[in-house]
Structures are given as C-alpha cells and as structure tokens.
Design a protein that fits this description.
about 280 residues, alpha/beta, TIM Barrel, 8-stranded parallel β-sheet, globular
Amino acid sequence: MIHPHFTQLGTPERPLKPRTSGLTLMLDKGLSTRQVEDVLDAASDFIDVVKLGWGTAAITPRLEEKIAAYQAAAIPVFFGGTMFEAFYLRDRVVDYVDILRGLEMEWVEVSDGSIEIEFQQKLAIISSLSEHLTVLSEVGSKDREHIMPPYKWVEQIRAEFDAGSQYVICEARESGTVGLYRPSGEVREGLVDEIVDMVGAERVIFEAPRKAQQVWFIRHLGSNVNLGNILPEEIIPLETLRLGLRGDTLLDFLGPSGDEGVQVFHAERSGNGAVRD
C-alpha cells in the first residue's frame, strides 16, 4: 500500500486486498471504458468494489468491456439498487438475475430506498439471491422526510444479515443529505453509535460522499471503516485520509515515531526558520 520510500512514516495498518474490512466502495456514475482503465491504472489498489450507479448500466456504451475491465483488476462490480428496484417493480427479478449471470457478475444490491417493499419480502429476496450471489442490501430511505429511528435501523440491519447479506449499506444518497445524515450533511452521530454498538462496523458500509463525512468516520471508527459512494477522483484522497497523509487526519495517527519526528524537526530549526543540515 505505502510506497517503500515512505514506510518510515509509520502510517496505520491497512489490510491487503482482497479486504473484508476497510473497504472503499467506488461510485461509477457513467465512466467510459477508457476512463475506467485510467482510474484503475492510478488507484486499483485502493478500490475494493464498484457500484455502477442507479440505472446507468442500461445506457452505458460498451458495458461488457467496462465490466470486464473491473473484473480483470479483480474488483467486483454491481449495479446500483435503483436498477434492482426497476426490475422488481416490473416483476422481473428472475430476468435481472439472468442478466447478472450473463455478464458474469457475482455481486448484487437489494434495496428499497425509492420504493416500498414489504420487509419480509425483501428478506426472502435476499435469502434467495444469497444462495448464488454475494448480496449487499441497503437500509435507509432516500426520502429526507422519512426519518427512521436508530432502533429500526439496527433491527433491519440484523435481519438482513441473518437473511444472507454479506454487507449492509447505510443510505446517504450521492448528496450525503439523507439517511445517515441531516439535510445539512451533518452526521447523525447517535444513529451511527447505535449501529456500531448493537451490530458492529465490520460488515456495515457507511455511504460518505463528502470529505467532511469521510473524516468524521475515520476519526470516529478508525482507518479501516468501510466507506461507500466514493467518486473516482476521491479514491486516492480518501486513502490519504485513512493513512493520516492529509491535513484533516494528519494529527490523528501520529504514533511515538511521529511525535519524535515532530520534536526533532522543531529542535533543528534555526532562528530564521530554516532547517539546519
């Protein structure tokens, strides 16, 4: 992860890929195949799974090539939950699964953020799909007027894990202003603490599209918190936040060696502010 030239920095430990925690879920809103190749060239080591947002896959040129590019980099890719909801509304979930198989996609998102699915029906779908696919399910509404109490989040997350979800995504939308967040983008801290205390954070992916939200989660839950809805251009900036290599978290991960380095630096400064040889 860290280039050999910089190992002396003593940055936080990050598990190697394929990771099961400390995941970065990238949101692809319609990249071209060539753009995907460029992103992977720069940041494939830091991307754990990719969501093709909403229903963008249905109108993406050269979709098969694009998916194959991610798969060649050993990065799972799945369609956004809105795509699942569109097929569900038309009573064509079986057709949806056939499409996934045809594209050799092994991950699927089950969500009800924009529509209403009877909860037991949602659990039954998760259970059925989990027999052959890795299921991510999503908890939380995209409707900012629908405020679900923390205990309900916990109940639903637990039930969806029990039904077969490998990971549960906590909703925020691309805007970061619903679900986990207030309309201002401020984290609903009590909600997050309730989820972590009652369920744990190992298999929960917190959508955090804004930098301030990413910083809050890293400071609150550590470098290896699972974060989602990360834009391609934010993958490397997020990794520097995780490692304390950006001003927002620089002071959060200084160990003894880091403290010593700061003291030596100050001790060696001359009166004019220059560092002596």
